[in-house]
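We emphasize that the prediction below concerns an isolated chain of 449 residues; any contacts that depend on oligomerization or on bound cofactors are therefore not represented. The input was used exactly as deposited, without trimming of termini.
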Amino acid sequence: MKFKNRIITLILIFTLIMTFTACDSNEVNESTETTKEEMIELKFIGTESRDNYDSDARVKAYFDAIELFEKDYPNVKITHESIPHDAYQQKVQVLSAANELPDLFDVKGSWNKNMVNNGLVASLTPYLNDNKAWADTIKPNTNINFTIEDEVYGLSVESGGSTSLVFYNEAIFKECGIDEFPATAEAFYEAIDKINAKGYTPISMGNKGKWLAESCYLSTIGNRFTGTEWTRSIIDNKGAKFTDQAFIDALAYFQSLADKGAFNSDLNSIDYKQQRVPYYNGQAAMFVEGFWAISAVINDAPEEISSNTKIAILPDVDNGLNNASMISGGAGGWAKSMNAGLSDEKKELIANWFEYYISEENATLLYNEGIIPGMESTSYDEEKLHRLQLDYYEIMDNIVPCEVYDLTFNPAVEAVLESGLQELLIGIISPEELAERIQEEYEKVSVEE
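Result of the prediction step, given as a token string:
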């Protein structure tokens, strides 16, 4: 009898154990399912590529911010789609038109107004106001191209720098009998002749993407002739015209460089990265690009080339305003913006991610790589900087920035300008004809606005 009772007792105990085990298993399964349900995906797109993680501090800052954020927010998964710069500009316009923008995306300064008017981007001002200590670390005017009526719609990790720098090979210059970088238009013309005579391409140019001629050349050349007040009048629709003689003179000067043989004949067939190749190969004496190309020269150019590379700014022009200290740049030209159609929960998460991205740590990272960040830092180490980076900082200390056309002009006007420059530089169209074409589009969009 006792033996039978023991068996019954063991059966009851075994039953209870199985019951509790099943309950625990169900609880684990339910917990796992709940966790899966609570996972939130944030979709980002931009020009950052993992391939450039070790060579571009801006890329490193971006992906590091994602990694650190995901560690602190284990229920959030951020997916990033990388798109090359020129293709990105086209894709975002398509996504905007279809109202299919992802959660976070790159916005160009000239796009901001239209995106705000169309309700595509969310104001970040409430989140900046919620964390004033963090917001105060952002440099004044860094995000001016993304601010409308005191509302900020995009944050830039860099303060902009210059889009118009001349990278030149000092050894080739000396071989051609040029002892210093030309300071005037006349001296520049003479240098081009001397470089051509030695069989080198004076300036390697890659304008396949259309923006380079406008952003890296004409924004500065134009200001040499028109001055900043003219540009502001165009932007604010206060009376200036693209058919004004000063702007026509700027177009004529730019075309004269092409007529002089300053550029390679395939300038409209190669892009901004490809334009560096002849320079790296010692076949070209110069190329013109923005501050972002400094790290490319340091990391990609052969030692013989990088060690002989100097940085200068475009020389003054004849019949200009004697404002050769002004070059295009200054404020952030691209920024990260948040989709206006997101839930409050996702908006809050992205606002929190910005604090990982726009940080003092990333400011120091950018400074140490020769990039001027959009936020304050007091801890970067000048001894870590390359000579070219220090030279660039010195240049920026002695210039006054002026507007970059493609970051401030209406996108439709900009498109006509950029396409027209491709024709201008190969002699298909005259400066006067191009000015008329741009003005016609300008008046059209001004009426629509």
